[in-house]
Amino acid sequence: MTRSFTGCSALVTGHASGIGAATAALLAESGARVVGVDVSRGQDVTSPAMWDALAGELADLDLAVVNAGISSAGAIADMDFATWRRTLAVNLDGAMLTLRAAMRAMIAHGRGGAIVVTASISGIKAEPGVGAYGASKAGVIQLARVAAKEGAPHGIRVNAIAPGGVDTPIWDQLDFFPAMVAEQGSREAAIDAMAKAATPLRRWASADEVARQIAFLLSDDAANITGAVLTADGGYSL
Questions:
Q1: Residues 6+ apart with CB under 8 A from 163
Q2: pTM score, two decimals?
Q3: How many CB atoms lie within 10 A of CB 183?
Q4: What are the chain's domains?
Q5: Backbone angles phi, psi at 208, to 5 degrees
Q6: Which of 8, 78, 131, 224 could form a disulfide with 32 if both were Cys (CB 3.0 to 4.6 A apart)?
Q7: How many alpha carbons fall within 13 Å on the CB side of residue 26?
């Protein structure tokens, strides 16, 4: 179902690839004016100065997708502290600064708005090897819930989405993935093997599917939904 966001101003962080790119494209196709923020453009979501400089461009903000993030893997006992700090900085500090900028703009113009924060099923279900990533995404979920309570008096809805496996470039950042691609014969086969092993539905989502779920949470169809976490994981967490 195509939703109209004609006349809306939307912010999407991490907009250059994966879920962010799919969401930015969908919102633009649906009539929104999209402001994209991405490290590929030299924009650092962990920088308060960057957000201060962007404030004027966000003055009419109606929608925001807090999506920028990085992945990391490794046992806690073996984890380099710099990896821990970088993961928490981008995924949690960056989310807080994005939320702060978006909510300030929406409160100032007085029309309210809708925000979706991209979390992860790793923030809900514990698995070995995702200590930093899982902790950052658990923090993001609670941050979104608090933001929902703080935003409600201003007409601002804040929800989170917790995808499971999604076929995005984030997998290519993980050390184990190239070996799995070599073992399975192709990237597509490696993704398919992981999905079949982990999920009752035996498939992972595409970035486009998650973008449509985000669009629903941003739309008037979800006007009575705030502080929710949409678990979209193919049954992985069951």
A1: 19, 118, 120, 121, 205, 210, 232, 233
A2: 0.92
A3: 10
A4: 9-166+205-232 (3.40.50.720), 168-204 (no CATH)
A5: -65, -40
A6: 8
A7: 24
